[in-house]
Amino acid sequence: MPKIDTSLQSIIYNYVMTHFLPANYPASVKQGYRQFASLSFCASIAGSASMVLSTQTLLLAVGVVGQGTSASIMAGALNWVLKDGIGQLGGVWFISFMGRSTSQFDVNPKYWRMVAAISLDTATLLELISPLVPANWVLLIASIANVGKNIGFLTASASRAVLHQAVAKTGNLGDVTAKAGAQSMAASLIGTSFGIGISPLLGDIPHFISGFMCLSLIHLICNYLSLKAVPLAHFNNSRLDMVLKNFIQKDGMVMSPVDVANKENFLPLPFNINNSNNHQQWLKLGSTVQMLGGPKVLKEILEKNKLTVCKPYILVQQEEIYHLVFTEGATGLQVVQGLYHAYWLHNQSSFSSNYNEYDLEATPKLSDNLVSKLQEKGWDLSLVAVEPKQAIRLRIVDNFNEKN
Hints:
By secondary structure, the protein is mainly α. The protein is 62% helix and 6% strand. The chain contains 14 helices and 5 strands. The protein has helices at 2-20, 33-62, 70-98, 104-107, 109-129, 138-167, 173-202, 205-228, 237-249, 257-263, 289-292, 295-304, 332-351, 367-376, and strands at residues 283-285, 313-318, 321-326, 394-397, 400-403. Strands 1-3-2 form a 3-stranded mixed sheet, covered by helices on one side. A two-stranded antiparallel ribbon has the order 4-5. Strand 2 and strand 3 (321-326) form a beta hairpin. The N and C termini lie far apart (78 Å).
């Protein structure tokens, strides 16, 4: 008997390894993959079960089921098609609108993955309450819900690519993505079966809503915890802010991507949409000519702050605000150095009430040390997305510094 159990266990293990996990797992994936995959699986189960409940109530609301005449069934089917079409148009509009804010999904994938989860749950709740609204409001409610679902699906798909890249090792992104698809389909099958199983037990709409609330809580918590497990190695505003503050305040200690993943905040709150941080109260990136005081003042600044290959930025202080502007060719590494320069000066001024004038030309000695430590910890300095979309950059033309 033990041999049979062992054999069966081995068969199940091999089946799971072959069909649901990347080849050569766990050596083929990075730290955090196991937690990310398992919690995402649980979240998908809860989400699929919720959608079973909402689909049943929506079918009743639009008249596809529960009606006695063929005319009412045809009208219900037409309503179903209309709400699907409106939802798809809404999803296309949202993605085209987000396309104007280039790289948002690449820069802040965790934030947008949570937006997707909340959007899907909100849409599901709207579908659940649709039988409770007046008949002439059903199509509107169903269409809004379907727009929310399409936004959720598209946003999840766009942000998921970056997350898979973060846990994949070089050369196996396709394998990780394919196995994630298999995991998602298996979770959907389990969730759908579970949703069908609990539907008769819930009975009426109020109990359906109560059941959904429990499933939604599981869905959101599992999504959040799964994202916490993924260490992103590129910098956005919040991650770089955290690393620079820690480096300055803790005598040169550099946080790793895993350390930052455990502490970063990516909940989709209004003030968090662009990963705003305290530095935005005292530091402006890519300031315009008007913000710097006009063309005449800019010319004086450029005469004092010589742009070079090693220092492709200007850093000036006006009252309590620092303005940091990079040249067009500044690399991600140089952006980090420029921001460290600003953070270092701001930290020095905050510790000394008499520290009113200081040499803005003096790049801190620890800058090179910071860069080498960042690279040792595994940070990717080729992508540093911290400047707002309205930020300007400077262009050097014929040995003169001019605004682009």
